[in-house]
Amino acid sequence: MEVREMTTNHRRRAPGGLEAEVMGVLWEHGAPLSATDVQTALGGDLAYNTVQTILIRLHEKGAVLRRKAGRGHLYWPVQDAATAAAERMRSALGEQIDRNAVLQQFAAGLDESDAAVLRHLLGAEARRKK
User: Fold this and answer.
1) How far is it, in rounded angstroms, from Cα 75 to Cα 39?
2) Among 5, 25, 52, 89, who pairs with 35 as Cys (CB 3.0-4.6 Å)?
3) Reported pTM
């Protein structure tokens, strides 16, 4: 019996991947967008209802705001991309028992330019607090 590997053009996204893509579109455009605008920016391979559902879920989670526009809504992010990423990092760190070990591993994984920026920012913050 011959076993064939099935292939498909549709790849599964990681959990939260579609929400991240939609947020990326909203951050990139910097202006309120409709579900149609987001669908177009994503390349149009997703159904309108799928995009609309993701936007509604993001609104329910408090990640985006919306206002009525015609028969639909316009959506925009509550936070900019950098603030949202920093909030996710703080949240992930807050869930850890050994915060020092997590911070050590994070710092060890930084490339030199990122480490230099972090050292500079920490130094500036320390000087500000004095």
Assistant:
1) 12
2) 52
3) 0.74
